[in-house]
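Standup notes, structure subgroup. Blocker cleared on the thiamine diphosphate input:
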Amino acid sequence: MTDTIGNLHVMNRAALTKRLVAGLHNREAVVGGIGNSNWDLWGAGHRPENFYMLGSMGLAVPIAMGVALAQPARRVFALEGDGSLLMQLGCLSTVAAQGVKNLVVILWDNGIYQITGGQGTPSAAARTDLVAIARASGIANAAWAADEAEFDALVARALTTDGPHVIGVKTDSEPGRTQTDRDPIRFRESFMRAMAEAV
Ligand SMILES: Cc1ncc(C[n+]2csc(CCOP(=O)(O)OP(=O)(O)O)c2C)c(N)n1
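Run returned:
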């Protein structure tokens, strides 16, 4: 039986990351946040257009926003955990203020700081609604995906309509299935080369 939180199905981050990446056909950039979000991105199969944030929480959205502003013709995804987004909440206001049309933020909300031991985040303890915060920050296209089909539909909409978009997903506590190579210089260089290719 599938777990639910309110009317939202609890989904699996690794499986959805695979679905997301499988649907990218235009050299979209994907920036994985620290830990699980980039481990599952790595597990979905490395692409040169992937950038892996290997050290600090909260930087997937700011990095992706910079890429999106520099390359308005390219669609750019940021994959971020709830703890990490909470650490850098102001980025949502900046994304809204900059009106970054080609940016899509995918929020993986498992309600815990998983890779440091599973301590609860305010997302679970205080019922902080990060998608509502995104909307209140000025991002109108911010929605929770109720299930896998709605996730696919929201991603399809984000690929074809102006953003910024935020897609929230309640995820289970399965740990990331792989670990990204700890080779930041290689990733920086391959990503920069990939970004030099026209979309
Ligand atoms: C600025 C900063 N503070 C603390 C840490 C230690 N740390 C690494 S991952 C992590 C938890 C991340 O939680 P979340 O973003 O919700 O992702 P999850 O592990 O649940 O997938 C913490 C506290 C860090 N890497 N960077």
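Discussed briefly. The longest strand covers residues 103-109.
Next: hand off to the docking folks.
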